[in-house]
Specification:
Elements lengths: L11 E3 L2 E3 L31 H12 L3 E7 L4 E7 L3 H9 L3 E5 L3 H14 L5 E6 L4 E6 L5 H13 L5 E5 L14 E3 L2 E3 L3 E4 L5 E5 L1 H6 L2 E2 L9 E7 L6 E6 L9 E5 L2 E4 L2 E2 L7 E6 L3 E16 L2 E9 L11 E3 L4 E12 L3 E8 H8 L2 E2 L78 H4 L5
Parallel strand pairs: 4-5, 7-8, 18-23
Antiparallel strand pairs: 1-2, 3-4, 6-7, 6-20, 9-10, 11-12, 11-25, 12-15, 13-14, 14-15, 16-17, 19-20, 19-22, 20-21, 21-24, 22-23, 23-24
Length: 454
């Protein structure tokens, strides 16, 4: 099977599994694959999916000494940040197979800094999250933050202390990624299906971006087609960016797969928490399949439409038309729903995702077809013009962080396909032919008919 050469950070799927092209290898380690010392003095190797459980257990044991965690993909190790050098704390971490890392900023200090940012620097076009690798709050400002707003932001960051927070400029404009590709349509807006789920009442449904659910109540699988699904719940802006949309036909078979184009699919077997340092894949109808890493959790993004909290921050690229698509892992874990960001797949940028686990809990749904078990069909996606995006704050790794990146985009109401003007990060403008899958024949309709595409 031959593959055309693909841009940086793009991955290709072969025979239902990930095949890395170019320099970036996507093979993730096996959980608990080895343990060099049964006594626990040497680090174990873990899967990224293990970080949440291991770090959670240690956080409860270590109390105030715990200052966040992250995943070292190269060494397949879990790194636990601690304040101080208490030998008992270090021994507990090593006994769990993790690696202790002494840092200066405690969880309480980072939470206090994030609170100050929320109070004094909630400016549209800004975002922040805790970076456990540097033990700092990472603040990002898009190209619209200038003049007095920039001065306000930088003075607030400076007041937190040089080792507490850093600020950087993003060349683009935080926005939702609208337009393009094989999509779902409603009220003049176009979005992508994220993951198929079973609603609490047992009916077939799917998750998509909340700003899509706000933009239109009924959704079709073709631009001029009859609606096939109706919004049941939607959250945006505020505590997330997600919507539950129920299929109108109760006999719909919702496939437990992500359609990655070329007739290939990836089976989704569970929903999982993201971990900083984790390698992830994003499917999008404009740019196809791309890979990258999780860089922040519980991100807060401030959009013109409002603030959205609890997002996952990544360095995976995305462009207009990719919004609403699936963030997942090679081994079949559903991680997130594409929300927005800045930049493109030429220059790079930040992209933010709604955690799937949070969305499922909020709407009372489970992944996949109730009759077929877990999983989710997903199409890459785009989202509708109509949705703005906001950003919010949460605490990450023990700190109230907010991810840097934003989604700002079109008009929430009315589903108008408008995007924020102005950023260098604005990817391809204009609408794309919805019948022409972008980049490698990606067609995202995996879950709409249960037949892996439409």
């Amino acid at each position: 099977m031959s593959h055309k050469r693909i841009p940086k950070r793009k991955a290709a799927i072969a025979a239902g599994s990930v095949a890395a092209l170019g320099a970036a290898a996507l093979i993730l380690p096996n959980a608990m694959a080895s343990q060099t010392d049964p006594a626990g003095s040497a680090p174990q190797t873990f899967k990224a999916a293990d970080v949440s459980d291991v770090a959670g257990q240690l956080a409860s044991q270590l109390g105030d000494a715990f200052a966040g965690s992250y995943y070292d993909a190269g060494k397949q190790q879990i790194i636990i940040n601690v304040v101080g050098n208490d030998s008992n704390v270090v021994n507990q971490i090593r006994k769990a197979g993790a690696v202790p890392n002494e840092v200066n900023n405690s969880t309480a200090e980072l939470e206090a800094a994030a609170k100050t940012l929320r109070t004094d620097a909630t400016i549209p076009g800004t975002a922040w999250s805790v970076d456990p690798k540097t033990n700092e709050i990472r603040v990002t400002a898009d190209s619209t933050v200038t003049g007095a707003k920039w001065n306000q932001l930088t003075s607030t960051v400076k007041s937190l202390g040089s080792d507490t927070a850093t600020v950087k400029k993003s060349a683009g404009t935080f926005k939702t990624f609208v337009e393009g590709g094989d999509a779902i349509f409603g009220g003049g807006a176009r979005c992508s299906l994220g993951f198929n789920v079973t609603a609490e009442d047992g009916s077939p449904a799917f998750l998509t971006a909340g700003h899509c659910g706000v933009a239109a109540a009924a959704w079709a699988d073709s631009q001029d087609g009859e609606p096939i699904a109706t919004v049941d719940q939607a959250t945006f802006p505020g505590d997330g960016d997600f919507a539950l949309v129920k299929y109108d036909d109760p006999n719909t078979q919702a496939a437990s797969t992500v359609n990655v184009g070329g007739g290939q699919t990836v089976d989704i077997t569970q929903a999982a928490e993201a971990a900083v340092g984790q390698q992830v894949l994003r499917m999008g109808s404009t740019t196809g399949l791309n890979d990258g890493n999780v860089t922040g959790l519980d991100a807060t993004v401030n959009y013109p439409e409002g603030t959205v909290t609890g997002l996952i921050q990544t360095d995976v690229c995305a462009e207009p038309g990719d919004s609403g698509g699936s963030l997942f892992t090679q081994d079949g874990s559903a991680i997130g729903l594409t929300s927005g960001g800045s930049g493109d797949c030429t220059a790079g940028g930040e992209t933010f995702f709604q955690p799937v686990t949070t969305a499922l809990t909020a709407v009372g749904a489970t992944l996949g077809d109730a009759g077929a078990g877990a999983g989710a069909g997903a199409g890459a996606g785009d989202e509708a013009g109509g949705a703005g995006a906001g950003a919010g704050d949460q605490q990450a790794g023990g700190a109230d962080d907010q991810a840097g990146g934003d989604q700002a985009g079109g008009d929430q109401a009315g589903g108008a396909d408008e995007q924020q003007a102005g950023g260098a990060g604005d990817a391809a403008g204009g609408t794309e032919d919805p019948s022409a899958p972008a980049d490698g024949g990606v067609d995202n309709g995996a879950g709409l008919t249960g037949q892996g595409g439409h």
